[in-house]
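[#protein-structures] MJ: dropping Membrane protein here for a structure pass
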Amino acid sequence: MAARARALVRRVEQAPPPPGPFRPGFWRSPLRGPWLTSVFGLALLIGIPLLFVTGMLSYASYNPGLNPINDQTPDKGLLGFYLFAWPTRPYWLYRLTQGVHVTLGVVLVPVLLAKLWSVIPKLFEWLPVRSVAHGLERLSLLMLVGGVIFEFVTGIINIQLFYVFPGSFYTLHFYGAWVFIAAFLVHVCLRLGRMTRALRSRSLAAELRTDLAHTRPEPPDPDGLVPTAPAPPTMTRRGALALVGGGSLLLLVVTAGQSIGGRLRSTALLAPHNRTPGSGPNAFQINKTAASVGVTPAHVGPDWRLEIHGPGGTLVFTRAQLLAMPQHGAALPIACVEGWSTTNQQWSGLRLADLAALARLPDAGSVLVRSVQPHGPYSSVVLRGNQIHDPRSLLALHVNGADLSLDHGYPARVIVPANPGVNNTKWVHRLTFRT
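AK: finished. structure tokens for Membrane protein:
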């Protein structure tokens, strides 16, 4: 029986590969080879860990370990081992980390596509699995390629405010990131030595001086990236690097302005919030309008009241009563998960710390903020004690010297330093302070 099985394996190994991309002569680009693949790989080796770290920081900024209300991925288990109390200083922290995450993710797209192009013959190896070790390597490659495509596609669709995948973006993107980074680390461990040798095999300066007439294929390699029957070159390696680098630079120019703001915002052609939103005190970007979440003028009309709950019972205030209290100001931006942010806006209102004192809980450890928004994502949020006690954390009533507009959260909204935009709850009607 064992002899028959071995004979069958030998026949399969000796059989010619099927036609098409499994044939060695199918891939003919003379540019493919370990050196060019390693150059693209080096760029990803630098960029992807930074992308992963900023993504995990984005998740931590929602304070998901604080309360189930904040947790968009409740089954994270051990994957939440690193979570920590998100700080309020510096106030632009979330604006920076999420801006880097989104911008870098877009900028790396040409590099990623070039890397996949350079190694595509590996995806069509014949036989697909030759041993247990080879099978594990192939599995890690499948997870790597599938994971990176999934993460980039879902992320880019989400930042365009158009999400079509089943399930929560946060859950899918979170788990996908961990699957991908695990495969990435395995791949790096398996290939780092080969990549280092490949990079040393050629001089970057020499390649940048090589013209088309002197462009030659790399020597045959054990991984089969170099074609067995290369076609005449139609582009130099410096041209390939320039094409990829130019594509990344172009994407940087048309994306980064949404995070940097100011005059550069008009250059963010691919950003959903790139347009100038008009003039006046409330003329800055809006994440969600009142109409889009079912908040109507009736919800925030003359009958609106703010309820403050604490150990001392319930206090109820009209907006006029809130305006009669001492007002405080803070210059803070709004920064969102899609990577866009505003410049600093001048907010004024009541300090959350003062409202905690009114609730007879001056050392409050958290506060549950509820909106008049009908039930839905981010209609409620829990803020930490450090967020309550930062003097710039406000229940804002005005912005830039004027009443909040309905779309910006009239009659009252929360604004907290370094807080993701969706956690700066709008249309607030209840604050419940807790120990």
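MJ: nice. Residues 20-267 form one domain.
AK: one more thing. The chain has a mean pLDDT of 91.
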